[in-house]
Model the fold of this input.
Amino acid sequence: MSPGGEFRAGFVAVVGRPNAGKSTLVNALVGEKVSIVTARPQTTRHRIIGIRSRPDSQVVFVDTPGLHANARKLINRTMNRAATSSLADADLVLFVIEAGGWRAGDEHVLRRLAKASAPVILVVNKADLVRPRTKMLPLLEAAGARQSFAGIVPVSALTGENLGQLVELILAQLPPGGRFYPDEMKTDRGRDFRIGEILREKLMAALEREVPYGLAVEIGAVEDDGKLVRIDALIWVAKDSQRPIILGRGGERLKAIGQAARLDLEAFLGKKVFLQTHVKVRRNWADDARALRQFGYEAGS
Ligand SMILES: Nc1nc2c(ncn2[C@@H]2O[C@H](COP(=O)(O)OP(=O)(O)OP(=O)(O)O)[C@@H](O)[C@H]2O)c(=O)[nH]1
Ligand SMILES: [Mg+2]
Done:
């Protein structure tokens, strides 16, 4: 039950450096995969809402792109802005770091957090990787000395360890109030966005070096005839040289990526999927405001 027995609801911004495990955490807390996850930093490119509804509470998590310094390209500035803008209307902030140690990237995030007026809980994620647990103590103590956090919790978003305690801390910080979304709603993002993200997840996971960062996915026609969903997807790359890399010899690499995406898409849509992909070049799209808007990013300048 929520503290005091009243219904509680609020917006919780989840921020941290790239790869800290923010999206994994949001998915675990929501109980559904609303945000894609890969082993590569800078996977999340948008603000994505994940909603956790219970009889006594509704927590609206706002997953954000990893905050990073040296954002040279427009897409990176757009990503950073998406993350910082979520701080403004948050009732609470979860600052996610890794249990393995405090890094320069975390310091950068901490400086951005100075602008947030909401309380901040420090979530020390990936605790499953630290053995013995006592190895984490110096990090927890040093973090506590850095700023007065509303709470410091070691968790594992991957195994679920300690997430119950984190939820209790979150609920204690949320104001009493009614729900923002219908109970059955898990995310604010629609079908086609989620289809594009599932394909982008498979592309990012399968490709290396700069290629994952050179690609964007645009979903064209989606036709659902009741039994089968036909999806037309455009994969945009930033350089001519990236196209043959994605295709692979005889188109084999893209075929394997498409198959992996199709399996997840069928699970997501609950129907058979026919996925057609085309790879196109849009030179330097990541610095082109028009292209970014076309691909669904809220690019300013
Ligand atoms: N061992 C372990 N790995 C984790 C945990 N949480 C996340 N990961 C892994 O860390 C990697 C990054 O996870 P994400 O959830 O994509 O991280 P993120 O902070 O959303 O990353 P960006 O979107 O790039 O900012 C993935 O390989 C996850 O499987 C955890 O608690 N334990
Ligand atoms: Mg993410």
